[in-house]
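Lab notebook, bench 4. The sequencing result for the construct came back, and we need a structural model before the next group meeting so we can plan mutations. Quick request posted to the team channel:

Model the 3D structure of this chain.
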Amino acid sequence: MSFDPYEHIEAYVENTLSGIDRQRFEDALESDPGLHIAIENLPKAKKLARSIIELETRKHLRAARPGTSWWIWLAAMAAMFVLTLGYFALHPGKAATPEQVFAALYIPPATVAMRSGSEPANVLDSAIHLFDAGQYANSELLVRRILDSDPSDARALRYLGHLALQKKDYLLATTAFQHVFALHREPLASEATYLLCMIDIIRGDLELARDRHRYLVNSAHQPGEDKMALLANYLR
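Done. Here's the predicted structure in token form:
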């Protein structure tokens, strides 16, 4: 049977895993930032589970009729506790794997290329055209050619970051977007901050992500209410 670390989070936290399973869990922990998030959220999940059980208990007590077998009610409550705790405590990280965070939060760059008919107008325009067509390797060659001539070209740095994200090179993406932010050109700086925040969440650095989120909250160039709400949800 395959080993699913998300089913052993509580045992790992309580230090009750066997030696082999603990080693498997720690191996998974090194490669899965979502697992760190799940461990961090376990106390909140337990608290939420207890709250749900308390509400359900009160509801059933109010609805209980004389003569109802207490052991049937107790068994139902126990089953509900197991199911609730299992869902909220053991699986929060499954909704926050790197792939799922990326799918939920990533915003591709809006096309800003200036074309005459169907012909690209310049090198960056050609790079953008290739990016939009999914030809990322060729697009990156052109972007890097621009940056060789002008390392502070904000739009080229922006696309270098997006290209890095396509191949899950989060180190390169972080470097590129940090350079964009340092140039303080809006709305590119806010877009870079948002994407850096997403990368921080993927890598499990929630404190840094919260710092960037505070910057975004005060920015006039937020990505949109839906994405900001999703971002805030990951940072709770």
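Confidence is low (pLDDT under 50) at residues 81-95, 113-117.
Will bring this to the meeting.
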